Amino acid sequence: MSGTAKIKVVPPARADGTTQVRMRVIVNREIVPISLKITWPALLVDEKEGVLLTKLPKAQQPEGYAEAVAVARRVYGPKWEQQAADYNLAIGQALAKANKVFVDARLGGYELDKTKFLRDYQSSGSKLDFLVFMETSITERWNRGEIKKNTWKNHRSTLNALKEFRKKIPFNSFNFDFPEEFDGWLRKQGVTDLNTRWARHKDVKTYLARAKRERIAFEPPYAYFKVPIGESSWKPMTPGELTDLEAYYKMCAPRTPHRRILQKFLFSCNSSLRLSDLVHIGQAKLTDRKLKFRPMKGQEKTGKELLLPLTRKALRYLQEAQTENGTEGFFNYADQYENRTLKAIAGVLGIETNLHHHVGRETFATEFIRHGGRVEVLQKLMGHTKLSMTMRYVHVDEDMKQAEIDRIDALDSAS
């Protein structure tokens, strides 16, 4: 890794005769300009030494020197030399701050790029305080388009809760008591819903994992804490509701909003794909009813592509969407509009389940088990690392329980 930080004069001169002075950082050949909010006569800037000048020996005075000094006096008044001293202090601090980022990267053994340099430079406390690190990381991920607005809002909400919990959370303060204390504080604040508390802990673990990848040293607080988790708040459609929705889809004319939205939603019900993956499905590769794609959620953890076999029904919804809409994937409306439309369709059909794009995965998981699928296979299809997460999506209804009892009776009768 290579990196340098120098002071540069940035022409042209302003109307008052001064010129902007910036710090120019180069990280692996990428130029990163840093505004210092400093202007000074260009002739009185020593770029090599990184300082502003107030005087030069007569033998070193270039043409126009007297005029440059006059500009400084006119713009900054009688205390112009003190202003130069103050600016030089600020420049020195900026250079030291930039060089510290380079040193930390070398000692930590990680590579810097333009984005990481700016993050570390702008948030010099990010290596010390988890709250600073989390806040800058959220902003960085949002600016890169790595997280969607709802995820950004949820992560900001967790950050705000942490700030209320403690004003500062130094990395070296993490211990095994932290999760219990944070969970207890959440309960005292009236957060009794298990899933809400689970989401808060999950967000904290997400940014602790990022800090670990940045080689920030801390004691892993969640090593012995089991994050509380409840049943998913989203419920799957019943088999009858799914049948009604499929029949309604067939009645919708091609290229109408209802049909386009249902193509995407019913594909999810038959494939388990999340909305974030459905939106980008045009980038996936389809071969012999197998979809090869890189999941949007959690992609920075593994970066691996997944191979998802599709049912014939799922494939039909995708192919109809591509043919009718002339797209590589599905026709995408705004998420809010699509979810409002799903609720409107449910109202028309008398579907009691609260339709939302999340319901697609719930429905797929439950129907998969209903039809005799094995839960360990379902785990792989849904891309979960833990079986407990998969089980949140499986909703055993009365019909499924009765079917299993009938199956056992049949086995007893045959023996």
TrEMBL record:
<feature type="domain" description="Tyr recombinase">
    <location>
        <begin position="232"/>
        <end position="406"/>
    </location>
</feature>
<dbReference type="InterPro" id="IPR050090">
    <property type="entry name" value="Tyrosine_recombinase_XerCD"/>
</dbReference>
<dbReference type="InterPro" id="IPR002104">
    <property type="entry name" value="Integrase_catalytic"/>
</dbReference>
<keyword id="KW-0238">DNA-binding</keyword>
<comment type="similarity">
    <text>Belongs to the 'phage' integrase family.</text>
</comment>
<protein>
    <submittedName>
        <fullName>Site-specific integrase</fullName>
    </submittedName>
</protein>
<dbReference type="InterPro" id="IPR025269">
    <property type="entry name" value="SAM-like_dom"/>
</dbReference>
<keyword id="KW-0233">DNA recombination</keyword>
<dbReference type="Pfam" id="PF13102">
    <property type="entry name" value="Phage_int_SAM_5"/>
</dbReference>
<dbReference type="Pfam" id="PF00589">
    <property type="entry name" value="Phage_integrase"/>
</dbReference>
<dbReference type="InterPro" id="IPR013762">
    <property type="entry name" value="Integrase-like_cat_sf"/>
</dbReference>
<dbReference type="InterPro" id="IPR010998">
    <property type="entry name" value="Integrase_recombinase_N"/>
</dbReference>
<dbReference type="InterPro" id="IPR011010">
    <property type="entry name" value="DNA_brk_join_enz"/>
</dbReference>
